[in-house]
Amino acid sequence: MADPQIESFLYREALLMDEHQFDAWLALWDNPARYWVPCNEDDIDPARQVSIIYDDHARLVQRIERLKSGSVQAMDPKPRMRRVISNIEVEPIHNGKLTVRSNFMLCMARANAQQLWCGRSIHGLVREHDGFRISEKKVLLINSDQEMPLLQFLI
Amino acid sequence: MLMTGSSLQFSELISGPVIHGRLYRDPDVFQRELDAVWYKVWIYVGHASEIPHPGDYVRRQIGLQPVIMIRDDDGHINVFFNRCRHRGNLVCQRERSNVEVLTCPYHGWTYARSGELLEPTFEEGYDSNLRRQDFALARLPRVDSYRGLVFASMSPVGITLDEHLGATREFIDLFMDLSPLGEIDLNTGTQKLRYRGNWKMLPENSLEGDYHGPFIHRVAFDLYARQTGLTMSSLYENEVPDVIRYLPGGHMIEDYRGASMTPPPGPPSDARRAYVEALEQRYGPERARQLASTIAPLIYIFPNFIYLMTHIRRVQPVSVGETYIYYQPAFLKGVPTEINEMRLRLHEFSFGPAGFISPDDIEIMERNQIGIQARGNDASFIGRGIHREKAMPDGGTSGFTMDENHLRGMWRHYAKLMDDPDHAPFAR
């Protein structure tokens, strides 16, 4: 059974992503940060191989600015999303950082189609006085080596 | 005005700047394209750097047919149909791998890396007339390459690859010469994307970013300008001639060498200085300055190759209304590693499923496919700059930054291929 504080943190992050609460989601992040969705395989060298997302904090801020701008075509209309987080495993604290692994299943409905996105998230969390901050998040999509539709939402 | 009669000429559907909607949505047109385009002309298969060692292969598709590109023991690159000569099973099922021999998993027939049949398995059961040399993997009738770019044609006859590439070779050179060694490395992973739209929309969209840029990429361009100091707005605010080129053979170019680009503020990084120095040593100061100071021209080689800033993009038709795109970032050989890492990060910023630029194009193309189902006025119009379209000595045309002369040229070429009298008359 996972720590209820960690569990509720992941659920809150999921809700903010599902409901496009971009600023509140960004506020969950530490700085510096790494938001990483590898491409083709789960373990690649990001200096040698292309990723789907490889954001540092500055680019994460840009990503949010763009999503909020109203000019992202795939956000008009906004997708409706709900995701389920499960199989949460917490590793012992190492160098003040918690590593949390979980699986997600995300249903997304938009433009006359429903999409199913599925994968595993690995969060690196640091504890702050008011809760946790995300310093790293790596998302392993099961379809990262397949021809996929647009990924223009938070995952 | 369509002529009456039993058969249709595609040149009737493409009248100068007016393109009929049927060309994007009719499954019969798609079937015709397979024969008249995909199974006929030179198709880009891959780059030599993807299979550096003997036995390395990658799977690819030409039209709807599976092929492999494999390097043999002599270092020679072969392109074979990916089909066992026994019962037609797929011989290679991995997308990329290295193999000693090619073994069909169904009944174990085994082929050399150069395609010869080695072992039909349980050979004693075949009569003595079975000759191994009759059962080699089928080779694409014609395979050739230019600067590592490998092309194949399913037609045993036709113009040579050099003739097909024609004037694009000058632009391929400008791309490859961004490397001080004159070579790129394409072993950098592949972003894969699908969209619900016709394949021809991708080249149409990819090579006209200056016109649609201020409408759908404005925020991304602003973010890019703030991050790098390089502003894109000068491209569309001050239109200049000779940027948009059509080259004979269906090819399109966006050539920015004549457009003024504001250089990024501040001194260049150590890596950047070392890179420019390496270019000077290899190419001399004048060409090095040209290579380093502008965006390399964007290249479309008809029908499925696109080079765009950071990467090579392959266009893969699936059906009349569905297309796959493969984005492979190109590393430059002989540059400081920081330069290639910057190219990779710029690529992720811009392209792929979660980038800040190309996803807006993808969404627009999907809506374009819905739009052209409406037949109230069943024609698209690509007339920008038609009054100032300049004929070039190479047989191509030249236009201003946001003109559509290149699209008109591509469609003229397409009509010529589709109307080739080798093919059966097309039902009206």
What's the number of extended β-strand segments of chain A?
A: 6
- As a whole number of angstroms, the C-alpha radius of gyration of chain B is 23 Å
Indicate the structural class of chain A: alpha+beta
User: How much of the residues of chain A is beta strand, in percent?
Assistant: 35-45%
Quick one: biggest sheet of chain B? Answer: 9 strands, antiparallel
Detailed description of the structure:
The complex is a heterodimer of chains A (155) and B (428). Chain A is of the alpha+beta class and 155 residues long. Helices cover 21% and strands 43% of the residues of chain A. Chain A has three helices and six strands. Chain A has helices spanning 4-18, 22-26, 57-68; strands at residues 29-38, 51-55, 80-90, 97-110, 113-128, 131-141. A six-stranded mixed sheet of chain A has the order 2-1-6-5-4-3. Chain B has 13 helices and 26 strands. Chain B has a nine-stranded antiparallel sheet with strand order 15-21-20-19-18-17-16-25-24, with helices on both faces. A four-stranded antiparallel sheet of chain B has the order 7-6-5-8, with no helix packed on it. A three-stranded antiparallel sheet of chain B has the order 2-3-23. In chain B, strand 24 (390-391) and strand 25 (397-399) form a beta hairpin. In chain B, helix 9 packs across helix 10 (285-293). Chains A and B meet through strand 2 and helix 3 of A and strand 15, helix 7, strand 21, helix 11 and helix 12 of B.
Task: Note the main attributes of this structure.
heterodimer, A: 155 residues, alpha+beta, Nuclear Transport Factor 2, Chain: A, six-stranded mixed sheet, 3 helices, 6 strands, B: 428 residues, nine-stranded antiparallel sheet, four-stranded antiparallel sheet, 26 strands, globular
